[in-house]
Structure formats: structure tokens, C-alpha cells
Specification:
A: 95 residues, mainly alpha, 5 helices, B: 132 residues, alpha+beta, Thiol Ester Dehydrase, Chain A, 5 strands, 27% helix, UPF0336/Enoyl-CoA_hydratase (chain B)
Chain lengths: 95, 132
């Protein structure tokens, strides 16, 4: 098997299962927004969640950076249109 | 950003009569623990206990006036009260940067207030945003 393909497969196996990541992100939303009823999906956008305003967005980004021990760049977070794109960005950091 | 992890800050505060009476005047919290010497002693304290939220006022002053930039806004803060504060207590405020979040221009601090006996009277964390 070519080395590059092996590396990609190894990387995918090492990475967190997307379903598990979504579950963890959902917990972060619950804690940050202090709302036990929140259920986020990959297609969830800010306007779909009560209280997901600009300040809450900052708190969410900080909580996600802390939880996954990663750092985002400002241009990265500006490109997110929904939770799925947030997850893509997290996965791009090797999580 | 102007801050970096492990930056430390110190400030000295005194809970004087003007601050104590000003707090009561503004917020009307006349609970006997804060205003009745005998009541406070009966509850096991050495005298009337200063309002814990006076310390939040000191925290506000520190963030608004003493950080190296005025371009700040408070995102969140938390405080735990550990020991009573009495009139004219001198409090040492200590703060340290514990997190930097460049993507959202946020800085997280931990802090405490200690009295002259080196007892922590309150501690907590706060997060600020650096605004343009």
C-alpha cells in the first residue's frame, strides 16, 4: 500500500469518531448555554439555538478550544456556517 | 495580543468606611450580618461582615482601570468566598493569565484576594475580551 494512503488510513483510525465528537460538542453547548434541552446536529446554525449570540459564540469557542486542547485562528471560526463545519475544523487539527 | 500566559498582576485594596457605606447606600443590602455587630458575633463572626460583592467592585476596578489596556470587556466572571472580610481589612489582589484564545481575542485569568494573615478570602476566574 502506498505510504500516503497508509498515513491517511492511520490518521482516520486515530481520529475521534464524528458521532462521539458531536456528543462532546453537545455537552459543551449544554454547559455553556446552561440549557439541558439543547440538542445540536451537524446542520445546526446559530439562529437555530436560543441564546447563541455573539458573546455566547466566544464562550463556546473558548470552551471547545479548552476541551479539545486546540487553538483556532480567527479566519477559521469566521468560516463556520454550522456545527458540522466547526467539527470539520476540529478534525483538521488532528482530533 | 498584549497579554501572555503567566503574566501576573497585583493590587492592594482596603475595605474602608466609604466603600462599605457607599455599597449599602447604592444597593440597600442592610442584612444584619453586614450592619449589626451583635448579630454577626452571634453567628460566629468577629464583627459585621463586609458584603462579598464589594470584592466584585474591586475586580471591576482592576479590569477596567489597571490592566495594561483599556480596550477590554468582561465576558464572564466567577467568585468563591472563603473567609469573612471586615471593615478596614487590607486585601492583596493577585491575578494571573491562565489562557489565551487568539481566535476570539479572549483572555482568561485566575485571581484571589488575601488578607493580612495571608488567608484567601475569595478566589475565582474571569474572562475578558480585548476589543478594538
Amino acid at each position: 500500500m502506498p505510504k500516503l494512503k497508509q498515513a491517511i488510513l492511520k490518521s482516520r483510525n486515530r481520529g475521534m469518531i464524528r458521532e462521539e465528537m458531536l456528543k462532546q460538542i453537545n455537552e459543551i453547548f449544554i454547559d455553556t448555554l446552561d440549557n439541558e434541552d439543547i440538542v445540536v446536529e451537524e446542520s445546526t446554525k446559530a439562529e437555530d439555538v436560543d441564546d447563541w449570540d455573539s458573546l455566547t459564540h466566544i464562550l463556546l469557542v473558548v470552551a471547545i478550544e479548552k476541551h479539545f486542547k486546540i487553538s483556532f485562528k480567527s479566519n477559521e471560526i469566521q468560516n463556520w456556517n454550522d456545527v458540522g463545519e466547526m467539527m470539520d475544523c476540529i478534525q483538521e487539527k488532528g482530533i | 495580543m498584549i497579554f501572555k500566559v503567566k503574566d501576573t498582576f497585583k493590587e492592594l485594596f482596603i475595605v474602608n468606611k466609604e466603600t462599605y457605606e457607599g455599597f449599602i447606600h447604592v444597593f440597600k443590602d442592610n442584612n444584619p450580618l453586614h450592619t449589626n455587630q451583635q448579630f454577626a458575633i452571634d453567628k460566629g463572626f468577629d464583627g459585621v461582615v463586609m458584603h462579598g460583592n464589594i470584592l466584585n467592585g474591586f475586580l471591576s476596578y482592576f479590569i477596567g482601570e489597571k490592566l495594561p489596556t483599556k480596550d477590554v470587556i468582561i465576558h464572564s466572571q466567577e467568585i468563591q468566598f472563603k473567609n469573612a472580610v471586615y471593615l478596614n481589612d487590607e486585601l492583596q489582589f493577585n491575578a494571573e493569565v491562565i489562557g489565551m484564545y487568539e481566535s476570539v481575542k479572549a483572555v482568561e485569568f485566575k485571581y484571589n484576594f488575601t488578607n493580612r494573615n495571608a488567608q484567601i478570602v475569595a478566589k475565582g476566574k474571569f474572562q475578558i475580551g480585548v476589543i478594538k
